[in-house]
Write a structure and sequence with these properties.
Elements (H helix, E strand, L loop, with lengths): L1 H25 L5 E10 L2 E15 L6 E16 L2 E8 L2 E7 L1 H6 L5 E3 L2
Antiparallel strand pairs: 1-4, 1-6, 2-3, 4-5
Length: 116
């Protein structure tokens, strides 16, 4: 039980780190410029699997030996939201932004897009 809680906390912490890393990158990202492409990316859900290990020990005192042995598999679920993506170019920088469907349909390749 404790192992599963630790593993779930590790997965949550990893997700939080990735979110904050993404926010840090977003501060430097291109958010306006000439639209060079458009693509709809549907929402996705998937799972990865992690082997759960248990520590098993034999012997006592100085002859005690412990090993990690597989003890099942846990599924870690992931999801990405739907994105109506506009690819942008501003001077020498490129990037992309996700917009709502109405904006995606209104803006055409070659148009200037300004976030906000």
């Amino acid at each position: 039980m404790i192992r599963r809680i630790r593993r779930r906390l590790r997965a949550v912490c990893t997700s939080v780190v990735l979110v904050f890393a993404g926010l840090g990158l977003a501060a430097c990202a291109v958010t306006s410029g000439t639209v060079t492409g458009k693509q709809h990316e549907p929402a996705r859900e998937w799972a990865t699997y992690e082997t759960d290990y248990d520590t098993r020990c034999t012997g006592t005192g100085s002859s005690r030996r412990c090993t990690q042995v597989p003890d099942g598999v846990d599924a870690v679920e992931h999801a990405t939201p739907e994105c109506y993506r506009l690819d942008l170019k501003h001077e020498d920088a490129t990037g992309s932004v996700c917009v709502d469907r109405e904006t995606f349909e209104r803006v055409q390749v070659g148009d200037h897009y300004e976030e906000g």
